[in-house]
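4.2 Preliminary Data

To establish feasibility before requesting continued support, the project team ran the inverse folding procedure on a target of 130 residues. The structure was first converted into the token representation described in Section 3, and no sequence information of any kind was made available to the design step. The complete token record follows.
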């Protein structure tokens, strides 16, 4: 009987931990997506107005936010997914600094795609189980 109780407690801890992890990932993905969408809109405006200074500062803030998120995601998410987002953000930052806003937009779109992919991949579904 004692063994059954221990097994039930362990399973309950795993389920609760999984639920907490999913909630955290959903929250941070949504925050990251919001930030990236805002950056994308501002890059489009900067491209039209030919001004990069505000975008450079905003990209720096996105980068700082990503660094905090990345530390925890590295434990929870497949490294390839995190690396894809990281690479897209680094390329976007470089393109913004070089004044290549069109290419920066493409990299921001790539980071958005991979962020959404993390959310889909971590969702509990039959497709993800098989």
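Position-by-position output of the design step:
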């Amino acid at each position: 009987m004692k063994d059954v109780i221990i097994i039930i407690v362990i399973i309950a801890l795993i389920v609760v931990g999984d639920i907490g992890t999913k909630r955290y990932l959903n929250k941070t993905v949504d925050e990251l997506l919001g930030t990236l969408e805002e950056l994308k809109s501002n890059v489009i405006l900067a491209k039209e107005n030919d001004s990069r200074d505000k975008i450079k500062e905003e990209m720096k803030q996105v980068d700082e936010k990503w660094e905090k998120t990345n530390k925890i995601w590295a434990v929870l998410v497949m490294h390839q997914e995190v690396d894809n987002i990281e690479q897209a953000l680094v390329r976007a930052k470089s393109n913004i600094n070089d004044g290549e806003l069109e290419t920066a937009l493409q990299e921001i779109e790539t980071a958005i795609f991979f962020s959404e992919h993390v959310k889909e991949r971590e969702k509990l579904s039959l497709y993800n189980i098989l």
